[in-house]
Write a structure and sequence with these properties.
about 180 residues, mainly beta, Jelly Rolls, five-stranded antiparallel β-sheet
Length: about 180
């Protein structure tokens, strides 16, 4: 098995957020301080982004694939807490929900992550994997409502290495059969 980090390569859907893929493409464990920001508002924020094709096919199995996101809430009121839903999309369709209606408490940033199973992807190579984050604003008077902003996302891919020891063993076997 092998692992690699995949940064987002494009934003496919961006609702009530301002910014570009370069604002969220760094490692959430060491974000750069750029954010997809929201002017607030009463509408949910939605981000759906794609990733590059991993080096190897994502390994199927519970808990082997991981999405991570660095998120924060706006700071219109200390007591108004927005929520976030974290979903795996496959070529534009829902594949799995990782977190649902999770509170986003911090105004400086907090990590959210979840694991999922690559079984049943429409493309075994992982080229159709997408992350969707939906933020739902808090309640209360309009001037006190908070919403969700996004600072960084990644896909930590677990995949099976292609080749490995099998190729040298096959070559050794061929040499033996040829009498060398």
């Amino acid at each position: 098995m092998a692992a690699e980090r995949q940064a987002p390569d494009a934003i496919l859907v961006q609702t009530n957020l301002t910014g570009a893929v370069t604002d969220i493409d760094e490692d959430p464990d060491s974000p750069d301080g750029n954010w997809l920001t929201t002017p607030g508002g009463d509408t949910p924020i939605v981000l759906r982004n794609s990733f590059g094709t991993p080096t190897g096919n994502p390994t199927a199995g519970a808990g082997l694939q991981e999405f991570k996101a660095w998120v924060r809430r706006t700071n219109n009121s200390a007591t108004r807490i927005p929520t976030m839903t974290f979903e795996v999309y496959d070529d534009g369709s829902l594949h799995a929900t990782i977190e649902t209606d999770v509170d986003v408490n911090s105004t400086s940033g907090e990590m959210h992550s979840g694991t999922w199973d690559a079984s049943g992807l429409s493309s075994a190579d992982g080229s159709t994997v997408e992350l969707r984050i939906v933020g739902t604003r808090s309640g209360g008077p309009a001037a006190q409502r908070n919403n969700v902003e996004i600072g960084a996302v990644e896909w930590n891919v677990d995949y099976a290495e292609v080749g490995g020891l099998g190729i040298p063993l096959v070559m050794h076997h061929r040499k033996q059969m040829a009498g060398n």
